[in-house]
Amino acid sequence: MKPLKLIKLLLLLLTTTLFAQQKPNWQPLLQGESFKGWTIKNGTATYTLENGVVTGTTKLGTPNTFLCTDKMYTDFILEFEVWVDPTVNSGVQFRSNSFVAVHNGKVHGYQSEIDPSERAWSGGIFEEGLRGWLYNLENNPVGRKAFKNNQWNNYRVQANGNHLSIWVNGINTANLKDNATAEGFIGLQVHSIGNESQENKKIKWRNIKILTKDLKEHLITPTAPLIDLTHKKRST
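Given the sequence above, the corresponding structure tokens read:
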């Protein structure tokens, strides 16, 4: 083969390899218009799926309700879009579990907060059912401005070993190191409500996708203040 043709071939192979490395292999968590592979846990709030949009509806007299993946995940990058009625709170569970031995099956684990209130802690990390707030946004004023009410918001959750980080609309809202839970499901929360005025409020999710391969090539370095809880033991 002539040197010029060999150089062109090598350049083509290099370009193809780099493109393959750069393009993330996202996997949708919803298949068509079906909740196959998902299970509702704990409460009796309802979920519907239409045109790729999951809609959860609040219901009076029920505890927190979670629509959870049957599959368990360890390290991943999760992305989704969410719209929430500004009068109710919500969240997306990750690395979460439900065991009879732990509070009789109550869903527990990390939650990416969806908080449309004036407090504005959307994108913080709350441990549902156990320790509560692990990373609020008290010391992240830039992050508190990331979430926008009455519109779709983009979330990115990175779980890489003991390093957990979240972005809302491209702004890093949480940067946490914690080694309590290494594996669990993804769950969409419809929060319990306390009065009739909050009944039948909607939370919507769309474009829910996950990346589990070649993570190192696609991880973003967090810039928010770091909280390190790896030296603390969790009590259940």
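The chain has a mean pLDDT of 92. Try to locate this feature in the token string yourself.
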